[in-house]
Amino acid sequence: MPVYIARIIFWFLDLFTNLEAYTWDDKVVDSLMFLQHSVLQVPFFLMSLMKFITPALDNMFMESLDWVDRTYVMKHQSEDPSGLRAMYYPTLREYENYKAPRKDQPLKQGAINGITAFLVRYGRKAGFSLAIYLLTFVPYVGKLVLPAVSFYYFNNAVGPKPAIAIFASGLVLPKRYLVRFLQTYFSSRSLMRELLDPYFSRIHFSRTQKKHWFLDREGVLFGFGVGFFLMVKIPLVGVLVYGIAEASTAYLITKITDPPPPPAEQEQFVESQVTWKNKNKFLTLPLDKLDANNILSSSTAQSSQGAEMPKKAFT
Q1: pLDDT tens string for the chain (315 positions)?
Q2: Rounded to the nearest 5°, which phi and psi values hold at 102?
Q3: Sign of the CA dihedral 247, 248, 249, 251?
Q4: How many Cα neighbours within 13 Å face the side chain of 13?
């Protein structure tokens, strides 16, 4: 919107003066475009806002989850049913009309509260991004702002050595490239939170539990999200890619979580999901053996936790 307003103003000014002899108006428009697309991520914000306008993305997640369950059954129909995982889709459907016993975990926020929380969350991130970008114009220290921010966040995510390499690269790379790099990282994380909303809107984690859940799966979620985020930015097809990403998230859930138990047992289940127990096994499996993790985890759960947390078995 600011870009269109600026263009209208310049068009109006061009009626009284010849702006073709100057280049400052083009620079203003280019700067606004850069702020809109690379700093504030306005197109991504508008696509994320769709979930409050239509339930299409939530329905797509659940329908894809149903398809994943049915495909899993067909793929392993010749194997011993007692060794297969439980289904995700039927149980998650039960959570839609279940009222959580804990007061701090309402099942669904109202539409107004949900939109308000989303706008506050986006406003906080946009304000932070804009503040960091403006600090880069401070004399002397401005050129260190983006490398320092990069080091701080990537040191926690990937360790000191890669973070130092990113910091050193930030000292020589043009500011625009570093801004795009950082925003790709942050926006990929935000994209994954939005894509996983249909799951967390049914199975309720506390704020602390949810934070630890994401941290324990950060690498896989970033790798999953960054590819889709880059494709979401493609003009015209971005909205279509967003829908594909939501459908693909349903499959991802079956690999990084256990099948949910009946809603009455969700509190104990949530505690068990904060830490990803099968992370090392999953990360070492070849692509054609990803289902082996489900079979192994199902068998282990039935033998070691069967009495503690009974699950629906496939029959």
Answers
A1: 444 454 455 444 454 455 455 454 455 445 555 555 555 566 667 777 777 777 888 999 999 999 999 998 888 888 887 778 889 999 999 988 766 554 444 444 556 776 777 788 878 877 887 888 788 888 888 888 888 888 888 887 677 888 898 888 888 888 878 888 888 888 888 889 889 999 998 998 998 999 999 989 988 898 898 889 888 878 778 778 888 999 999 999 999 999 999 998 888 999 999 998 888 777 777 766 666 666 545 444 444 444 344 444 433
A2: -85, 135
A3: positive
A4: 13
**Are 19 and 25 in contact, with CB atoms under 8 Å apart?**
yes
- Provide CB contacts within 8 A for 294, sequence distance 6+: 72, 84, 85, 254, 255
Phi, psi of 86 (to 5 degrees): -75, 165
Take residue 285 and report the two structure tokens written for it: 């499996």
**CA 192: distance to chain centroid?**
1
Spatial CB neighbours of 162, under 8 Å, sequence gap ≥ 6: 154
Distance CA 206, CA 214 (A): 12
CA angle 197, 200, 205 (to 5 degrees): 140
Closest CA to 232 of 44, 54, 64, 56: 44
CA-to-CA separations, 105 to 53, 132, 209, 262, 300, in angstroms, rounded: 23, 34, 12, 17, 30
Name the pTM for this structure: 0.71
DSSP percent split of the chain into helix, strand, coil, nearest 5: 75, 0, 25
- Ordered DSSP codes for 113-160: HHHHHHHHHHHHHHHHHHHHHHHTTSTTTHHHHHHHHHHHHHHHHH-H
